[in-house]
Amino acid sequence: MAEWQQRLSQPRAGLAVIAAVSPLFEEWLERRHGVLTYRLTQVLTGHGSFGRFLFLIGREETPGCHHCEDRPEDTVEHTLAVCPAWAEHRRILRDVVGDGALSRPALIQAMVRSEGDWDAVSSFCEAVMLAKEEAGRVRERTSSRPSRRERHSGRRGSRDDLRPP
C-alpha cells in the first residue's frame, strides 16, 4: 500500500482518476463491493466515447459534442454534468449521488459509500456510454469520411494483404 501511495504521489498519467481516488484511497482498496466494468472505466479515465479523447487519437475531426447544438468540447465532465442528451440518466444518478456537482470525485465517493451507490454509478456509465458508442457507429455508417477500418486497411499485415488482387 505504501508503494502504491508513493507511485500515485508522482503520477505521469491518469491525473483526473488519481485526484478522484486519492482522498479515499484506503476506502477504495478495502471496499468489498463493485466491479470495474469496461464502460465505468471509460468514464473514470476519460478514455472512451468522448469527443476530446476521440479527437486526440484521431478518430474524430473535432473534440466537440455531437449531442449539443453549440458543440462544446465533449469530456467526462461535460457528459456527467452538462450534456442535455443525458439529462434523464443524470437525474436518476443525482437521486443517489446527491445534489452536488456530478464529477469524478463525486462518483468515487458514491462508489465507495455502498454497493447500491456503486450500482447506480455503474448503471449510468453503462447506459450513457453504450448510447454514445451506438451514436458513434451510426455517424460512422452515414459519414462520407472513411471508416476506421478503411483508413487502416492498407497497413502491413492486414487481412487485405491475403486477398488476391
Key descriptive features of the protein:
165 residues; mainly alpha; 10 helices; globular
Describe what you observe in this structure.
With 165 residues, the protein is mainly alpha-helical. The protein has a domain of 108 residues. The chain contains ten helices and no strands. It is globular, with a radius of gyration of 19 Å. About 4% of the residues have low confidence.
Helix and strand run: HHHHHHHHHH
Overall pLDDT score: 87
> What's the helix count?
10
Q: Round the Cα radius of gyration to an integer and report it.
A: 19 Å
Seen as an oligomer or otherwise, the chain set is single chain
How can the largest sheet be summarized? none
In percent, how helical is the residue content?
A: 55-70%
Task: Give a summary of the structure in a few sentences.
The chain is an all-alpha fold and 165 residues long.
Secondary-structure blueprint of this entry?
Elements: H1 2-9, H2 15-21, H3 25-30, H4 38-45, H5 51-56, H6 76-81, H7 87-97, H8 104-113, H9 115-142, H10 148-152
Helix pairs in contact: 2-8, 4-9, 7-9, 8-9
